[in-house]
User: What shape does this take?
Amino acid sequence: MSLIRDGIPASPGIVMGPAYVLRLEVPRIPQATVAPEAIASEIERFQEAREWAKTRIREVQRQTAERLGAVEAQIFEPQILMLDDPDLVQGTVNYISENHLSAARAFELRMLEFEAEWRRAAHPMILDRLNDLLDIELRVVRRLLGLQDPDLALQGLEQRVILVARDLTPTITVQLDRTAILGIATDAGTRTSHSAILARALNLPAVVSLGDLSDHLQTGQELILDGRTGRVILEPTEQEKEVYRGRDVKVREWEQELVLLAHLEPITPDQQPVLLRANIDLPAEAEAARSHGAQGVGLFRTEFVVVGRSSAPEEEEQYRAYRHVAEAFPHQAVFIRTFDLGGDKFPLFLQMPPEENPFLGWRAIRVCLDLPELFRVQLRALLRATAHGDVRIMLPLINDVDEIRRTRQLLEEEADRLRAQGIALNPGYKLGVMIETPAAALTAAELARYADFFSIGTNDLVQYTLAVDRGNSRLARLYTPFHPSVIQLLKRTAEAGRAAGIEVSVCGELAGNPLGVLLLLGLGITALSVGPASLPEIKKVIRSISATDARAVVAEALEAATAEEVTDLLVRGISRWLDLSLFSGRWNLSPVA
Assistant: This one.
């Protein structure tokens, strides 16, 4: 009997074949100490291993640039910088000199401390970097213990395999032999880790975060891996194999169709144009978003310049980052969100005390207004960026018009200072707010008097409306954007925006959900922002469903009493025009349906 495991889809593609289980662990390090007279030479050994690791990573970086391109090669830059981090280097040296630990043991302890600190931060951007940490740990420790690099040649195999491991580091991923490996399945990992990014660059289907899969497998056991849905099937039946062969053919045809859509307009069959923008986390993602057909950036998260930092970022660094994205879309709008700190993401330099309910606590606009010395620097950088495009400033977690007034006052003061210094800015810049709480949605008509636009953050709006933590797996079935209360708040916000004549867009996960697009079109919301990879599929939805039909479906949904009834109406509605099982994500959980 087959066993099904669901993880996170990290790289698309359906493959079948035998598993190859790679046991990639940090070597066991003896609990050794060194004699006082050997401390100097032990420190020297550590420095030599560190320099050796940097040289090896630079070689992998060079090979990656030749094989995949300069952008992918940049993935290894943080590892090289980490090996020169004064806290890492001096901390290890101190353990050797003060505690007489061996170089390998001292380095391992310092790496464990780094890992614990990063895990405490709990920010996805930092967690994504954990396999970079593992990468440098493996290299330095193996060098100190005199061990060779892991053998990735996988010689002697009679057929191509699906590689299974607890986790894969970026340098190992990029060295995998594409002619020997069909796909990748890992116990840990995230979709945005460097390993996952490289798997996509290599066109290797991958599923990550599969729990303890590697503990339950032996090399040679047969697998089906579906990188679009994040599903892995162990020891599949003949019926399941036949179903997935058919699915593979349909998905390939679907992907070819999506490629053709890239340069077509996002417009409904009854000629309703839709603005389709991209959500990005890093400036470098702007070009990829544009190549996927984005009409601007609907959400540029700016936490990357503060989270994981031990000092506050300077204005010039921020300005360059914001300008980069603005210049990538010279004729289209770029919505830049001010720091959304708090909750699960605090920069190290803020030294925040713990809160009992951090998502209901000191976060987002509250932090910024309470720390004007931090906020003013960001506002100045944003104002300077307005000189390079249609940059729109977006405030997170707004509940009250006073928060908008206070921000506008700070902006005016900083704009005056910039003008006094002869620094250019666009005096017609726009200031808008995110609608993320029931309070904001219910007072949208009042907020619209002070805001130039609304952007609905559906992830938080759902969480706060239903009082359900979206990260709590036990409550996952209760977290639904299709609850009637959420739909009423979306409707109210859309109506308030239309009445005030300001744009209402959606930048939360709902905009990347085909059922969500049907719902939003039916509510009259015609500006959406999604992750770059979702742009083709969402454009397909837009070009397949008329706004008139969407309004008819949603009119029925607005009368429904439960989330299940709403979902059922939307599924039945969209299935008249589209095959839901072809979309990325697990829209069809049955392995044989």
In short: The first strand starts at residue 3 and ends at 6. Confidence is low (pLDDT under 50) at residues 588-593. The radius of gyration is 26 Å. Residues 121 and 420 are 39 Å apart (CA to CA).
